[in-house]
Amino acid sequence: MEKETSKWEDEYKSTKATGKNVAIEYGTSSLKGVLSSETVNVGGITITNQYFTEALATKKADPLLKAPFDGILGLGNPHDSATRTLSVWESMIRQGKVKKKIFFIWLGRPSLFRKYFFQMSNILVGSKDTNVCSRGCQVFIDSGNSNMDINDSTKLSPDCSNDKKLPDVTFTIAGRSFSVSRRDYIYKVNKNECLSRFVETKDEYWTLCMSFMRAVHTVYD
């Protein structure tokens, strides 16, 4: 495969192309690009040699092409990165730019949570114990995922006929209860089509996502 070059390298002297081609798949589509590095400033904090992927090609139907933003700033673990490079947050830590190794994400409604991976001990639909996590489940929070990779016990009807009757879903974590309402876990395509944000998974760990984060203020340390 012929190596791509950075489209910014000639215009900005601080942009450096690595010559490494990148292919990334995500929920709605995929892209091809090139790995480059740049000096980045976020909120008055400047970091050097920050790697990022320049997207050079994607599918015409990719909904991100119509998004009102220019890029995605990931905060995930480097080991889960498609390029195995440091996120902006990890670079800030390694370059000594932050006093406390803590960041939080606020999407909507207040409460508190912390850490990447954690143990969840129970899931209730309304007041009914689902018994699917009574022995403990390993869970992590993914801010880049719209769906929760947790087996669905809500019994949502695809035609939306019972969507207004469904109860809160409550997760028991460290002895505390964290609830998401139907407005958090139901995606209404139109008035006659509803999708649950809970999706079946065979992974050894489960994933909470933006639907959870809208209801729960998440803090990472």
From TrEMBL:
<dbReference type="Pfam" id="PF00026">
    <property type="entry name" value="Asp"/>
</dbReference>
<protein>
    <submittedName>
        <fullName>Procardosin-B-like</fullName>
    </submittedName>
</protein>
<feature type="domain" description="Peptidase A1">
    <location>
        <begin position="154"/>
        <end position="221"/>
    </location>
</feature>
<comment type="similarity">
    <text>Belongs to the peptidase A1 family.</text>
</comment>
<feature type="domain" description="Peptidase A1">
    <location>
        <begin position="14"/>
        <end position="109"/>
    </location>
</feature>
<dbReference type="InterPro" id="IPR033121">
    <property type="entry name" value="PEPTIDASE_A1"/>
</dbReference>
<dbReference type="InterPro" id="IPR021109">
    <property type="entry name" value="Peptidase_aspartic_dom_sf"/>
</dbReference>
<dbReference type="InterPro" id="IPR001461">
    <property type="entry name" value="Aspartic_peptidase_A1"/>
</dbReference>
